[in-house]
Write a structure and sequence with these properties.
The complex is a heterotetramer, with 2 copies of chain A and 2 copies of chain B. Chain A is of the alpha/beta class. Chain A is built from 13 helices and 14 strands. Chain A has 2 domains: 181 residues, Rossmann fold, CATH 3.40.50; 129 residues, Rossmann fold, CATH 3.40.50.920. In chain A, helix 1 packs parallel to helix 7 and helix 3 packs parallel to helix 4. The longest helix of chain A is centred in the N-terminal third of the chain and has 15 residues. Chain A starts with a strand and ends with a helix. By secondary structure, chain B is of the alpha/beta class. Chain B has a single domain, classed as Thiamin diphosphate (ThDP)-binding fold, Pyr/PP domains (Rossmann fold, 3-Layer(aba) Sandwich). Classes of the chains: A alpha/beta, B alpha/beta. Bound molecules: thiamine diphosphate (2 copies) and magnesium ion (2 copies).
Chain lengths: 325, 318, 325, 318
């Protein structure tokens, strides 16, 4: 057992896969000797050398495109684009083209590519934008977002072994935060399985990434009011674990979807719409969405704090859900 | 027959096939993008690649590229309408995307540009394997205005990747002439990446072929990427149905007079590689082959709903 | 009164605005002498000349970026990117940067930019993708999609006069189709107002673009079964006309959202989620979504037809909504 | 005082301010991106623009650019933390985005590259107005790897736009040295767009200023865009907190010895423009000004919730 931060766990997972499979390599800006922003690749260059830990120019489209090309030729590239804020620079290659190749080739092309990106409001001021819904809208590409170090390791390993492009998201607010016990051995967390992190009878709270911990805090506060929420850590937006969501709502009859991404047309809308369509018979109350409003993230720390959902906002959303039905 | 003669005949055959494809498909489909006048670039590039090399063709010439790599012509033509017999069973179009099973990376969307980056990545894979593999990327002069050109060339230069970039420079992007498409010449962009640039007569199939093969050999030796500006002219419209009336007929006629097939035919005759009878025979054979393939493709069935495969979007299912 | 196709109406609207305001100009690929793909700019070059109808290289990011820059300096550029399929090439400039400038500058910057794009399954085979949800997810940019020639003219004029970036979407299946009577004079259709195109008591059908006509056909068929649907032509995704949607659902108690865009994380999810949150008390049945499944649009015409919602799929969605509650 | 002398003193003043900003901000904020060693490029570019010209600065040097255009130093520094007194009242950061009211187009996101396209667009607006306005875009050598560089330069070339592109070439993009960032030299990219390219000593403020002003004058005359490669060195780390240990200290020392401020000071002395006493006076004045502004900024309040303005995202409201 090792106690590791999310940053350490992700790097450890990548290193294990690079040891296991000579076809795995990683490229990105400043990931070599520099170790990557926020140490996102710390130690990889020292162990695997410049041939497999490749520093590149500031050409996000070029390196994701090169990742697609190398993946088509049988490699398993990992591309670190630094920040999810740059997703708009790579969407064509990663999503539109990369996601379609397997299907369009009638199953003959495979694109086992992982694109890593940091995001989220946290101690690092800037680059917080979370645009993952764009990729989730596209066919043929998976979207993973761990909420803790253990899952981060297991999910990055699953992502690397996956034969599809995977967007792997690392929240900067969780990155160097608390440490988790990581079991020895080959832990792999299959993509597409949500995790029950708190059982409860009253309201289903669907959260992801940094929102999971905040939902847990809200859950503790609400318990004191006698409200027991059930929290699902979604872990992946694609594939979406519809079964676990629906069966929880079947039990509670109420749902609040929590998201750090902007609300309008965010992936929280998909989850709410899915339940409004497929789980309507279970619902006793409106489906609440607690999300960042559609506003450019303001820079001043205090303004920034006002727009990102915290435990109070989540608890308030739950209380609204309890107030009807 | 000497090696050189064999190559020259093969080049001629591929040029003839390219032109026959234009004739036969163009008659059936106004949306077809003919390569009329550009056959020397098509044949010069696509003939003679090694098994295992990655080929990233320009869309204009994609069917010829797929054929040159061993694709079945009838199946390729079936892909024009998405017939069940095509390489993707109708899921995708063959005129912009050749079969991946022949090492071809085509356009998997309508967007021009990213394929240059896929070529760089394929070359990176080859470099990691260190077995002398290369990637060949062909693209239009208009496509060279996209930022992907810049990022791909720079990345290839910095990482010393075994990739050859060839601009199929037909001087037009739809209606936009070179002067309004790019400042400077495409070939002069090479220096900005510290990469050798070579301007070749894109109507001389041997010149194109030799330049491409030379650059490929250099790349195989680990000496890095190269840019070739194969300068030619789009004699036809952008599409079969485009009258192309945004340019003078004198200009078109001038270039028609430098027809790459006629030029190479004259060389084959003057160098005694083929006589007139053999040349006519070759033409007739290619024509018959293309026509037969087209007839077959046209009578092939459309795909059934089982091809749709909504649960086959991801590798591994769902 | 003139009878015009959507293509003619859009061009007429642009020409009127160019006559009105010398700051309006248009740029794009092959829009000059060539007249634009599908005649999207036919006649503009002849009237306004090459200085204001500007042919550009194949540099979608560059020209949308130049549009942003010119707009910041007080012009009112229109950029024709040909096809919405290329949205991934311009998202940074148009959406992430362009949409944030007004807010981030504390209201001092204005980006009166219109980006036009064609899309949709129709007689033109290819370039059908509808990625508008990406832009709708971003703050500060509007998204308009007319369903008929009259609205197209009025909306393009409103878009040009708007002080924000607007993504203006032109469906290729409607483009050269039926002609509408276009009243003389300065018709302007404000962005953000949905239109009631059929009144009915049983189910609210929210549609947009080419789906409006199909919903109307479904409405006729359903009427024969005694089911009266109320159809809203959304016209804009941003701003979203929440009031009209909610008041219709208040009346009918049932909703089906129809969309040609892919279902997962599409804008239809936002509409469903909004009603599941704010109109839950009205709902008697699950909210149905009739949308294109998340699959790369297959090329064969018959396969393509299978995935795009038609009147039968819409009617079936309505019948499902009627079957419960 | 002669025109030349005035300009030289103003350039010196702006270099001194740039260095003082680095010293004062760097001490307070480890995330600050110092322009240490690059002051000649900063001052040479940003001094002397006309009212109405569009300025699109590199992020490294943004505060100095905003100051040079007339921004209030205390308000600019207040923007480092998003204070209520800053130009955007805290909605956005001043270190990467100068106030639009001074004709500055900054970075409205973290993405490097698109600003070159905004500059081309601002130049297009100026061209349509035909009143001799120009746009000046400054960007890093690393940024030049982005496709935006390519698309912006090509567009500017083809449309003959009045825009000057200056590469603040400090030979590094974070830890990535020139050799690993770009094949070839930045200046050599100009020829590929048919645009004049000029390499200048980026440690000589007069050389930079003259080159930039020359290119601007040319652009004003309607002769189109130009690219200037202002070659210098990033003496400091990427951020104030970066030890920069991915390069040799000899290399750093070599460049420190060519300190642009010392070089220009020597010239001011030897040409008799200023004597030692005047130079010391200038330094002290600039230092006092920057320190006072910083004190003011640091004591300013953070914004209240009224600044949030969720209904002010769109012009015209909502
Ligand atoms: C990114 C992008 N923009 C626009 C188009 C539309 N388009 C299709 S072909 C074409 C012209 C391409 O010119 P060039 O690269 O010179 O190839 P050519 O047609 O001359 O063979 C254009 C603009 C596209 N396919 N992709
Ligand atoms: C598109 C993009 N990719 C990556 C980054 C992260 N980043 C911030 S500064 C920087 C280095 C920029 O290098 P250069 O353009 O040479 O400017 P310098 O820092 O040397 O002044 C990088 C990579 C970014 N801001 N934008
Ligand atoms: Mg061309
Ligand atoms: Mg630099």
């Amino acid at each position: 057992m090792a106690r590791q931060t999310m940053q350490q766990a992700v790097v450890a997972g990548i290193a294990e896969e690079m040891r296991r499979d000579a076809g795995v390599f990683i490229m990105g800006l400043d990931i070599g000797q520099f170790g990557g922003p926020l140490n996102s690749c710390k130690g990889l260059w020292e162990e695997f050398g410049a041939a497999r830990v490749i520093d590149t120019p500031i050409s996000e489209g070029g390196i994701v495109g090169a990742g697609v090309g190398a993946a088509l030729m049988g490699k398993r590239p990992i591309v670190d684009i630094m920040f999810l804020e740059y997703l708009g620079l790579v969407l064509q290659q990663l999503g539109c083209d990369g996601g379609a190749m397997h299907y369009y080739s009638d199953g003959k092309a495979r694109v086992p590519l992982v694109v890593r990106a940091k995001f989220g409001v946290g101690p690092y001021h800037g680059h917080a934008y979370d645009y993952h819904a764009w990729v989730a809208h596209l066919p043929g590409i998976k979207v993973a977002m761990p909420s803790n170090a253990r899952d981060a390791k297991g999910m990055v390993k699953a992502a690397i072994r996956d034969d599809n492009p995977v967007l792997f998201l690392e929240h900067m607010g969780l990155y160097h935060g608390t440490r988790d016990e990581i079991p020895e051995g080959d832990i792999v967390v299959p993509l597409g399985e949500a995790k029950l992190v708190r059982a409860g009878r009253d309201v289903t709270v669907v959260a992801i990434g940094a929102m999971v911990r905040r939902a847990q805090l809200a859950g503790e506060a609400l318990a004191e009011e006698g409200v027991e929420i059930e929290i699902l850590d979604l872990r992946c937006i694609v594939p979406l674990d519809k079964e676990r969501i629906l069966s929880s709502v079947a039990k509670t009859g109420r749902m609040v979807v929590v998201s750090e991404a902007m609300k309008f047309c965010g992936s929280g809308a998909e989850i709410a719409a899915m339940v409004a369509e497929e789980g309507f018979r279970f619902l006793k109350a409106p489906i609440g969405r607690v999300a960042t409003p559609n506003v450019p993230i303001p820079f001043a720390r205090n303004l920034e704090k006002m727009i990102i959902p915290d435990e109070n906002a989540i608890a308030a959303g739950v209380r609204r859900a309890m107030a009807t039905g | 027959m000497s090696n050189r003669n064999e190559t020259w005949i093969a080049l001629h055959r591929l040029m003839l096939a390219t032109r026959e494809l234009d004739r036969v498909i163009g008659a059936a489909d106004g949306h077809w993008h003919p390569a009329l006048g550009e056959e020397a670039v098509v044949a010069g590039c696509y003939h003679g690649l090694r098994q295992g090399d990655a080929l990233v063709p320009h869309y204009r010439g994609m069917i010829a590229a797929s054929y040159a790599r061993g694709g079945d012509l009838a199946r390729l033509l079936a892909g024009l309408e998405g017939k069940a017999t095509s390489y993707t069973r109708g899921r995708y179009r063959s005129d912009v995307c050749g079969p991946i099973e022949f090492g071809i990376i085509g356009l998997y969307s309508g967007a021009l540009g990213p394929t240059l980056e896929y070529a760089a990545g394929a070359a990176l894979a080859a470099k990691l394997d260190a077995r002398g593999g290369v990637a060949l990327a062909v693209f239009g002069d208009g496509t060279a205005s996209r930022g992907n050109f810049h990022e791909a060339l720079n990345l290839a230069a910095v990482l010393c990747l075994p990739v050859v970039f060839v601009c199929q420079n037909n001087q037009f992007a739809i209606s936009t002439s070179s002067a309004r498409e790019h400042g400077g010449r495409i070939v002069d962009r090479a220096a900005g990446f510290g990469v050798p640039g070579q301007l070749v007569d894109g109507n001389d199939v041997v010149a194109v072929h030799d330049a491409v093969q030379g650059a490929i050999a250099r790349a195989r030796r680990g000496e890095g990427p190269a840019l070739i500006d194969a300068f030619t002219y789009r004699v036809g419209g952008h599409m079969a149905s485009d009258p192309g009336n945004y340019r003078s007929s004198e200009e078109v006629e001038k270039w028609k007079a430098r027809d790459p097939i006629a030029l190479h035919e004259a060389r084959l005759l003057s160098e005694g590689v083929l006589d007139a009878a053999k040349i006519a025979e070759l033409r007739a054979a290619v024509s018959a082959e293309v026509e037969a393939a087209m007839r077959k493709a046209q009578s092939d069935p459309m795909p059934g709903p089982e091809v749709l495969g909504l649960d086959r979007v991801f590798a591994g299912g769902v």
